[in-house]
Design a protein that fits this description.
With 95 residues, the chain is an alpha+beta fold. The longest helix is centred in the C-terminal third of the chain and has 17 residues, at 63-79. The protein has helices spanning 40-53, 57-60, 63-79, 81-92; strands at residues 6-8, 11-13, 20-24, 31-36. 49% of the residues lie in helices and 18% in strands. The strands form two sheets. It has a two-stranded antiparallel sheet. It has a two-stranded antiparallel sheet with strand order 3-4.
């Protein structure tokens, strides 16, 4: 079974407590993956990492540079549209 991880400071990792929650497709009641059971410690680490990241190159980039990055993100989403739609359907239980 696939386990998802928290993304904190650009690194994917499980919750500090090592606990997992089942991610269930509500239409089929099948477990489609597991997600970290994050606690306040994980949230605190994520907030600290976000504050640090907010002071980095992104905050100093121009609107044009940010738009270029967001355009690349949009292209990446479009390239994987079918896969992302299937995953969202499994997650919500909707066709």
């Amino acid at each position: 079974m696939e386990r998802q991880h928290n993304c904190i400071g650009g690194k994917f990792e499980p919750a500090a407590a090592g606990e997992w929650l089942d991610n269930i497709n509500p239409a089929t009641l099948q477990v489609v993956s597991q997600i970290p059971r994050s606690r306040s410690e994980d949230v605190d680490r994520a907030v600290a990492a976000a504050k640090t990241a907010g002071q980095g190159p992104w905050s100093k980039s121009s609107a044009v540079e940010r738009a270029e990055v967001l355009e690349r993100v949009a292209c990446g989403i479009e390239a994987r549209l079918e896969e992302l739609a299937r995953l969202e359907s499994e997650d919500t239980g909707k066709p």
